[in-house]
Every structure is written in structure tokens, then in C-alpha cells.
């Protein structure tokens, strides 16, 4: 009986376990079914959402586009840069008159060859008659500089060749024979080739010194010679070229390292055309010298009587990593740096047109000019059909260095001597760096003095930019309104040796015209000698700059930019007026208008601010003075706005530096424009630029400086030119290594009673009144993709 009971109990337990298992299985099935249904629903709706997204993406169309270039015929323009065809035609005209003897590459100083050429500025009176009165078309001429090494005596001549549209252009000499001394000519690669041959012998003599001092360096495998420590003399007939040794920057020996200069230098006596008579002298090592020649220096070094320097072993292998401007792969990327950055695009294509070099955009129209020596320019700038500027052009860049070094002290560059746009330096638009990908790019031409052939460069880009800010805005109780700031930009990057400059002209919707120039590139450094007797106990700096690397310091220098601004307010009869910003008593303020003896009782204080007007009667140079602030305005006294006020424009310089050199400096006459921030002169055809190309090489007697132009002529109701000078001082720091990041300056031309009211209220804007009675919006851009980025659009 016990056994039967036990069996019944076991059977009952087994049935219970089976039931439990069945229940658990049913529960798991139910849960699985529920989860499966939920997942199915999720997947279904996800697929539906993806299908909807796919359907939406399929609706994205390609952005509208069009070519803004109506035609590319430069030769039909009055102001456009010379074409290569025109350059060849000008060159043949010189060849036909035996001014040059061939187009063979220039190899010898005794040749007659073309240094450079660019468009000769047309006469303004004839241009205005053509543009405004339908007069005869103005011909195009080339201005050509010829180095005449075969002449007796040799010299440099300037010629005007044209009209270039003629079958037989005429050649007219612009200078007298011998007026530009041969020794005052610009440097070129022909001369530098002769330098190299001469200095090779000295480098062989100094090979042991260089190997021991400079980490086993060998010339020319590891070292090159830098000759551009100008100017080459004080007088025109002198020619003395100081040189300094430096490391090559990179393996291909094409790019020079202007950062690691070495404490070995000398001077080349190099006047005339007979290089067999040239010689080297005045050698220095670690500022010890002068030694008569390389042999004397090597003898002194070998005797052990000199202070020596030895770069640490392996230094040469570190040069590329120090100065090569590529991403430092030893450092991690910043957060999200792997993602593409924000960009602008044109949803409905460009809103400007280009015909030759004539540009139209939003009631602005102007023509672009350029020349290889002076750079970019604008001509015949009009807004809403009225001329504002006849010419706005870059004229000169001056860079003046200070340093405690045998070859690198007192260096002065006027960059027009080397060329501000093309030539021996590469000047190409860097895609997606200089300008957005949708910009329009124009070419400019140059003449190569080495190959004696013309060339073209992609030099100028044009595009509309989104300022991503308001041009104006207001949020009131009854309405909210604003206009997004957009502007047209003409941008011109250029290279002069180690420095890169970017010029920019910005046209705004309200009639303002910004002109800016920025500097970037390599600094020209100097050797750092910790044992220099002129360096005190603090081994981080000298009177001339800071230490910025193991063997480098950054010499202080300035960048001064000169512009020619021929403002024509409606026409060429203009007057320059100063608005003096004053502070004083109430009676002093009111007496600027009326004769009054008592202060009206409603004035709270007896001190106030007021303005006082002054008409500049004669040519004058002006300087910024923050203790005596003035508005600079150019007005047309015969043209009034609706309120009876003279129409004009204000000149507003951005933050700028002042010239710190005194009149005692030997170069100040040649660089006289740097003394002023604005100079006003009566326009003359012969006064085209702030300097002459060769004046820096004859600084004792320059022929074309600004002080010569300021001869106190009357300037009321005359055709005026304002010469504007802006710039900045540079104290190089460690953040300038390996590249100086952008530093900018410039000026603004701003309407000043030129209009009856703000000029931008003929544009669609954002405006909404609180009751929605008045509503306005800009045209809404459609969602679209650009052809260039189609590969990034999944469903396009």
C-alpha cells in the first residue's frame, strides 16, 4: 500500500512538472510572439519611414547654375590686363625697332631684354569721354621695361607700345637714355646665376667651416645662398649685394627655407655688366669680421681665434618637420574634425555677370584691371548708375626689417620691384582655400624676364558671399525686420617671396566698398646666437625680437600697403573736407554756426561734443591722431541730396600702424608715402604710383616719391586722388612658426549723405508686423545639391 501511494505521488509530481513545462512553454511562446509582433511593427514602420525618406530624397534636384561669364574678351576692355597675345605683339614691336635683339632666354647681362610689361594706364580724360559721352574708343597700350645691357652706357628704359589693336603699333620712349642707371635695376634670375658662379669658389674655401658649424652641411646639397637683403646701395650707381647662407627647406631644392638663416655672410661688389670684374668681400661669421675674403675668414676660423657655433648633431634632419606646413600627425584630430565643415552654396546660380573683366552685381558695376608689378585694381566703379570711384588700385608694399645681423640688418623691400602679381613667384588660386568652389576665376598675364615669354596665371576670383549676419535689424513692439548681409567679393591672392598677400574688394548692398589686404606665409627669420654680446642675461629676446626656435629669432618688421584711390563723386569735380570731432564749451560749439554770447538755459552741462568743418584747400598729407579725431570726406559741392546736403563718401581706415622711422633714415625720402595715412593731391597723368620701381635702389635720390607730388596745388573742386596707407607692425612670436596666420588691415569707402536714405531698402528682406498686415521675405532657396558634391548625396 505504501508502494502504491508512493507511485501515485510520483506520477502526480510528474504530471505537475509536465503541466508547468507546458505552461512555461506557452508563456515563452506568448512573449516571443509579442516581441516578434512588436519587432515586425517597428521594422515595418522603419521601412515605411525609410521609404518616405527615400521618396523625399528623390525629390532633391540639382542646384540651378549658369556660367556668369558672358564673354572673355579682355582686349575689348579699356582697363583689362594685357593678354599674352598683346604682350607678344608689343615684344615684336620692340624687336622690329632693334630695341631688343631676340626672344632667346635671357642668360647674359650684356643682352637687351624685356624685364616686364603691363597695361599702360589710359588717359583719364579720353576714357571718360569714351565711357560717358560716346567718344572714340581708347586704344590699349603696353608699358614695357627693357634692360639694355648692350647700350653704352647700359641702362633701363621704359617704353609705351601701341595701340595694340593696330597692325603697326608705335614705340615711344618714356624715359631718357641713362635716366635709370643700370645698377639701379631690379634683381632678376640672370644676375643671380652670375652670383652663384662667383660665390661657388668661396663656398669651396669655407666648406670645412660650414661642415663643422652647421651639422655637416655641404653646399649646394644642403645649403643655398640668399641674395635678397636689399637695397643694393644708397646711390643709383652703386650695386652691392649682401648675401647670407641658409638651409634648403625641402628635398627638391626648389623651396628656400627663409627660417633657418645661418651666421655666415658676405657682400658682392657687382656694378656694370662685366661679371668677371665682380668680387666678394666683407665676410662675417657670427658677426665677427669683416674679413677681406673667404680665405681670410677660413684662416681665422682654423686658428681657433674666433667664437664658434656648432648646431646640435642631427639638426638638419629636423628642418622639414619644423617648417613644412603640413598637419602634425603626432597630434590627434580635434573633436569632429573628421567631419566636413560648414559651406556656402548658390541655390539658384550666381547673381553676377562678367563680360571681359566688367562685373555687374546688385546695382554695382565695375571693371577689373591688373599688372604684374603693381597688382590688382578696380576702375569705373558705379553704384545705381552713378560713378563713385574712377580707380582703386594697389600701388606699393613696403616691408622694413630691424635685426642684429651682419647681412640682415637694415633690410628694406618695396615689393613692386619684384612684382605683386605674377612673374617668378607662383600666384595661383588655391582651390577651396582662397575662394569657395563656386567662384569665378579670371586669369592675368605676366612677362617672364628669364624665358622672354608671356604667361598666364589664375589670379582673381569673384563670388557672392553670405555674411551670415544682419546688414540691419530691429525687433520692435509692432514689427520685426532685418536684412541678411550678402556682398560680392573680388579676391586676389599673391606671393612675394616668403610672404603671401590676399587683396579683397567687398561690395555691399548699402553702397559701402571695403578694401582689405592680409598677410600670411613664412616669416623671414634670423639666426639666434645665445652668446651674442648684445643679448643680456635674458636669453629669450633681443632689442630686435624674440627667440622662436633653437637657432632662430623673429626680427621685428612692418608691412605697409599703399593704395591709389581716385574717388569721383558723380564727376571729377570734388572737394576734400575734414569733419573735426571736438569737445568744449556750449558757446564754442554754437559759435561754429552763429555768433552767440549766452548759453541757452536748456543745456544741462556747459561741456559738449560738436563737429567743426574744414575744407582742405591745398595738397596735403594727413596722419591719424586719436587725440584729434577727424572724418575724411570727399564731396561734390554741386550735387546735393534731397535734404540739401553735399553728396559724398567717407574714407574710414581700419586699424593701422604708423611709420616709426624718423626723417633721418636714409630711405625715408623714397618711402615718403609711409609717413601719412592719407594724402590728397590733384590728379596728374604722370603721377601714377606712390613709388617708381627703381627708387628703392637709388634711395639717395628717388625720382617719384609722394613728397614730390605734395607741391601745395589747390584742390577745391578739382579731380582729386587720395593716396591711402594702411599697415601693421609685426613682432614675430612662436605662433608664427611654421606659418603666419592671417593678419588684416584696410579701409572702407562709406556713403556720406550720398543717398536720401539707406540704399538697401530696394531688396527683399525679412519683415513681419505683429498683426501680419505687412509681411516680406527673401526668396526662399529650394533644397538642392551641387553637381560637384553629387557623390555625397545618397539618393541624388
UniProtKB/TrEMBL annotation:
<feature type="domain" description="Copper amine oxidase catalytic">
    <location>
        <begin position="344"/>
        <end position="759"/>
    </location>
</feature>
<keyword id="KW-0472">Membrane</keyword>
<dbReference type="Pfam" id="PF02727">
    <property type="entry name" value="Cu_amine_oxidN2"/>
</dbReference>
<keyword id="KW-0801">TPQ</keyword>
<keyword id="KW-0186">Copper</keyword>
<dbReference type="Pfam" id="PF01179">
    <property type="entry name" value="Cu_amine_oxid"/>
</dbReference>
<dbReference type="InterPro" id="IPR036460">
    <property type="entry name" value="Cu_amine_oxidase_C_sf"/>
</dbReference>
<keyword id="KW-0812">Transmembrane</keyword>
<dbReference type="GO" id="GO:0009308">
    <property type="term" value="P:amine metabolic process"/>
</dbReference>
<feature type="transmembrane region" description="Helical">
    <location>
        <begin position="21"/>
        <end position="44"/>
    </location>
</feature>
<protein>
    <recommendedName>
        <fullName>Amine oxidase</fullName>
        <ecNumber>1.4.3.-</ecNumber>
    </recommendedName>
</protein>
<dbReference type="InterPro" id="IPR015800">
    <property type="entry name" value="Cu_amine_oxidase_N2"/>
</dbReference>
<dbReference type="InterPro" id="IPR016182">
    <property type="entry name" value="Cu_amine_oxidase_N-reg"/>
</dbReference>
<dbReference type="GO" id="GO:0005507">
    <property type="term" value="F:copper ion binding"/>
</dbReference>
<feature type="active site" description="Proton acceptor">
    <location>
        <position position="415"/>
    </location>
</feature>
<keyword id="KW-0560">Oxidoreductase</keyword>
<dbReference type="InterPro" id="IPR049947">
    <property type="entry name" value="Cu_Am_Ox_Cu-bd"/>
</dbReference>
<keyword id="KW-0479">Metal-binding</keyword>
<feature type="modified residue" description="2',4',5'-topaquinone">
    <location>
        <position position="499"/>
    </location>
</feature>
<dbReference type="GO" id="GO:0005886">
    <property type="term" value="C:plasma membrane"/>
</dbReference>
<dbReference type="InterPro" id="IPR000269">
    <property type="entry name" value="Cu_amine_oxidase"/>
</dbReference>
<dbReference type="GO" id="GO:0008131">
    <property type="term" value="F:primary methylamine oxidase activity"/>
</dbReference>
<comment type="similarity">
    <text>Belongs to the copper/topaquinone oxidase family.</text>
</comment>
<dbReference type="GO" id="GO:0048038">
    <property type="term" value="F:quinone binding"/>
</dbReference>
<feature type="domain" description="Copper amine oxidase N2-terminal">
    <location>
        <begin position="107"/>
        <end position="168"/>
    </location>
</feature>
<dbReference type="InterPro" id="IPR015798">
    <property type="entry name" value="Cu_amine_oxidase_C"/>
</dbReference>
<keyword id="KW-1133">Transmembrane helix</keyword>
<feature type="active site" description="Schiff-base intermediate with substrate; via topaquinone">
    <location>
        <position position="499"/>
    </location>
</feature>
